[in-house]
Amino acid sequence: MQCINKILNLREQLNRWRLAGDVIAFVPTMGNLHEGHMQLVSQAKKQADRVVVSLFVNPTQFGEGEDFSTYPRTEAQDKQKLESLKVDLLFMPEVTEIYPKKSLTTVSVTGVSEGYCGAKRVGHFDGVATVVSKLFNIVQPNKAFFGEKDFQQLAVIRAMVLDLNLPIEIIPVPIVRESNGLAMSSRNGYLTAEQKNLAAQLYASLIIAKEELVLGQAEYLDIEKEARDKLTQLGFEPEYFTICRQEDLKPAAKTDKQLVILLAAKLGQVRLIDNLQINL
Ligand code: PAF
User: Fold this and answer.
1) Integer distance in angstroms from the first to the last C-alpha of the chain?
2) pTM score, two decimals?
């Protein structure tokens, strides 16, 4: 696996592959890789000739008081994991390589980025859309792989690619869960063993809501309130638990069939998100 820090060197290598006719897959990450990232890479390996992974903890998507400086950085272990999956190229730029000076341009996606995590983490999705569009311009992949765990992020990226006519196929990869149902996340590392057990209740609350939706009896607002109340009783601080439409993340009506329940809750100091897609 080649490790490259500079955009110029990355472009030289990618040009060689492109000239040889290789299909290039891209997996952007912030490192601290877990089984969810490994799934993204495995899917990318299956669907392309060359796999490029980026490891860049992007400062512009962290708000004030968020965990940018303490975000887990585990480069040595990450490299080993990517080597074992036979990734072709790891791009690990310094912050100054991606942001050499104060940017005058921000990519901002309206609609799907508003509400939910966008409301709580103001500016977060601008940071994500901007860095992902920069990385897309640097790598110019044929396909890019994103986890469904960050469902709102995936919607933002899809909208950006569509609106800006980027010739990149966005491939969603299903959530990978611990055996107790907890969605894998780099931030799970902040949880104690006890909190990890309790955090499995997030997925359990999604399953209960799904069952009620499938039965079709309860009002959506009641299902949401019941879930939030239950999570509060269990010791979570729920931020949102909303039954939405998959296509635009607007709150769902009874006539909608392609649904996703979006959920965020704090457990102690740790903010966790999860979701469940339901096709009625
Ligand atoms: O999902 C992430 O890890 C990040 O938001 C991403 C897409 C790598 C952009 O920094």
Assistant:
1) 44
2) 0.97
Contacts (Cβ under 8 Å, ≥6 apart) of 211: none
Q: Do the beta carbons of residue 275 and residue 149 sit within 8 Å?
A: yes
Q: Which residues of 205-221 are buried (b: 16+ CB within 10 A; e: fewer)?
A: bbeebbebbeeeeeebe
- Decide if 37 is catalytic: yes
Token readout for 171 is 């491939």
Q: CB-based contacts of 136: which residues, under 8 Å, 6+ apart?
A: 26, 144, 166, 168
Nearest-CA residue for atom 5 of ligand 1: 128
User: 260 φ, ψ to 5°?
Assistant: -140, 135
Report which ligand 1 atom has the smallest distance to the Cα of 61: 10
Which ligand 1 atom sits closest to the C-alpha of 28?
Answer: 8
CA dist., res. 214 & res. 166, Å (int)? 37
For each of the domains in the chain, give its residue range(s) and CATH number, in order of start.
Answer: 2-173 (3.40.50.620), 186-279 (3.30.1300.10)
Average pLDDT for consecutive 10-residue bins of the chain (280 residues)?
A: 98 98 98 97 98 98 93 97 98 98 97 96 97 98 98 98 98 98 95 97 98 93 98 98 98 96 97 97
